[in-house]
Amino acid sequence: MRTTISLDDHLAQAVRREARARSVSMSAFIAGVLADTVQRNAPAGAAATFKFPTISGVRVRPDIDLDQPRALEVLDDEKEFLKSSNGSA
Questions:
Q1: In whole angstroms, what is the distance from residue 59 CA to residue 10 CA?
Q2: 19 Cβ contact list (under 8 Å, min separation 6)
């Protein structure tokens, strides 16, 4: 998006010097400073809107160890193997 801003002469010179020192355009420098300021002033936790539901004290599948991430996949593989070896479809 393109927009026009007005700066007093001293501020414009300071911005130009700082942008040149960082080897960026004035526009890129101003956009970076504004983005940093907006991010810093955003309310704490504004981005953390998703919350995982949890169940306290109940294990849905006691045979699954959540510390072993492939546990469910292994159980599914075993179930499929037993089904195919029994001749079930």
A1: 65
A2: 25, 26, 28, 29, 30
CA separation, residue 45 to residues 18, 29, 35, 42 (Å): 32, 27, 17, 8
Contact 14, 28 (CB under 8 A): no
pLDDT recorded at residue 72: 73
Q: Is the pTM of this model over 0.85?
A: no
Q: Rounded to whole angstroms, what are the CA distances from 14 to 7, 21, 27, 30, 44?
A: 10, 11, 13, 11, 31
In the chain, where the domains are located: 9-41
Q: What is the mean pLDDT of residues 43-64?
A: 65
Distance between CA atoms of residues 42 and 47, nearest Å: 9
